[in-house]
């Protein structure tokens, strides 16, 4: 276990149990209501899981599958006869992929990945308490990140609400509310997948923040690491090397759990990004180059172009936020080896100044950090979409290139779609 003695300035405050995941409670509670997260609330030491939550998650997954089948049936009967064949095909795939993404994410996170996710959350409690006592103002730094989260969360909710209201008004006015009902479930699934993206993003960003604090302590506070003795003047137990090594291994374990639990959902979220953007761009092109495009005698006009543009921007922002969190965390993990080698250099300078640092204990600590530097150099930290590809910016640009290439070919060989 870590050395977690308080600093003595405010024992009541320093002995307070710390868990940074609690600060994202609104997002976790919303995901819990959507059956995308198994934890309803956090106790002092461990997450609390309702016994009936798995049954609730399975029920939601089955319900959304049945609802999607009903929605597709209504579209095929009432809407698809008036749409171009290509848009018909892409729209059907879009509905299917969104349904599969939501259902598989429920099973991957709330049913099969429940125990692994809870293990990661329990280890987070130990790591957060460790940084609370060993890194100055760590709680204040995390609070700044949480404020940023709330701003992003509110902005995302406003963006989605505006899109869904505009989408509902457009379709209801053009085809009637009775027919628009078949597209209403699509909007609900889009919202659920948006919450899923936020859930993964901030779970990964918390790992990144913990890695950043670990690297900060290793590179800028070597005096707190090379000592393990009790200081009677300050009433402090300073962390030793084995504490740092254990914290790093726990963070690696969290990354592995993230890949195991969130890997498949990230894969299908990528598919959703492709088909949704492709669907909206196709409709954009159709209603841009064809005059008087109507459905049952009702023309969409410029409203459809604005809606398509709005949808593409929404999808790009959402997927970019997901990819950027994975890419930033992987880059931060790559900085650990540099921080360790920097610490070893600082230790060598201290040895030249004071022979007391050449004791067996300090040699053992130097050995621990040498092994940690080698391990962090050889370990390739990344977030994988179920092993098919790595979630980074190169993947984002590859997917965008694929979408644009498909559109170019489609425009060249299909004049009327």
TrEMBL record:
It is found in: Cell membrane. InterPro entries: 7TM_chemorcpt. The chain crosses the membrane at residues 25-43, 55-73, 93-114, 149-166, 188-207, 266-287, 396-413. It comes from the Eukaryota. Keywords: Cell membrane, Membrane, Receptor, Transducer, Transmembrane, Transmembrane helix. Belongs to the insect chemoreceptor superfamily. Gustatory receptor (GR) family. Gustatory receptor which mediates acceptance or avoidance behavior, depending on its substrates. This is Gustatory receptor.
């Amino acid at each position: 276990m870590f050395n977690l003695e308080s600093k003595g300035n405010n024992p009541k405050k320093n002995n307070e149990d710390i868990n940074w995941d609690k600060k994202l409670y609104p997002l976790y509670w919303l995901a819990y209501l959507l059956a995308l997260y198994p934890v309803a609330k956090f106790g002092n030491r461990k997450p609390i899981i309702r016994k009936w939550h798995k049954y609730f998650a399975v029920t939601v997954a089955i319900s959304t599958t049945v609802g999607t089948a009903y929605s597709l049936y209504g579209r095929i009967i009432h809407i698809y006869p008036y749409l171009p064949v290509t848009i018909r095909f892409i729209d059907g795939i879009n509905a299917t992929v969104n349904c599969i993404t939501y259902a598989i994410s429920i099973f991957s996170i709330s049913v099969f990945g429940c125990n692994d996710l809870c293990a990661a959350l329990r280890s987070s409690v130990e790591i957060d308490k460790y940084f609370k006592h060993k890194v100055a103002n760590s709680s204040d730094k995390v609070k700044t990140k949480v404020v940023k989260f709330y701003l992003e969360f509110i902005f995302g909710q406003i963006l989605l609400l505006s899109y869904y209201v505009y989408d509902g008004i457009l379709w209801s006015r053009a085809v009637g509310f009775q027919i628009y009902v078949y597209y209403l479930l699509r909007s609900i699934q889009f919202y659920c997948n948006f919450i899923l993206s936020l859930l993964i993003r901030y779970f990964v960003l918390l790992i990144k923040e913990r890695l950043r604090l670990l690297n900060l302590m290793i590179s800028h506070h070597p005096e707190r690491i090379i000592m393990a003795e009790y200081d009677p003047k300050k009433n402090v137990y300073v962390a030793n090397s084995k504490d740092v090594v254990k914290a790093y291994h726990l963070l690696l374990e969290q990354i592995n759990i993230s890949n195991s639990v969130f890997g498949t959902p990230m894969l299908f979220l990528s598919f959703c990004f492709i088909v949704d953007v492709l669907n909206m761009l196709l409709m954009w092109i159709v209603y841009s180059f064809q005059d008087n495009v109507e459905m049952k005698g009702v023309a969409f006009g410029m409203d459809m172009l604005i809606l398509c543009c709005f949808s593409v921007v929404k999808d790009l922002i959402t997927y970019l936020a997901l990819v950027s969190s994975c890419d930033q965390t992987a880059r931060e993990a790559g900085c650990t080896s540099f921080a360790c080698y920097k610490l070893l250099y600082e230790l060598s300078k201290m040895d030249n100044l004071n022979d007391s640092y050449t004791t067996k204990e300090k040699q053992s600590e130097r050995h621990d950090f040498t092994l940690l530097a080698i391990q962090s150099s050889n370990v390739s930290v990344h977030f994988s979409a179920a092993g098919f590809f790595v979630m980074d910016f190169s993947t984002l640009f590859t997917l965008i290139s694929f979408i644009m290439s498909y559109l170019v070919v489609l425009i060249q060989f299909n004049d009327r779609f």
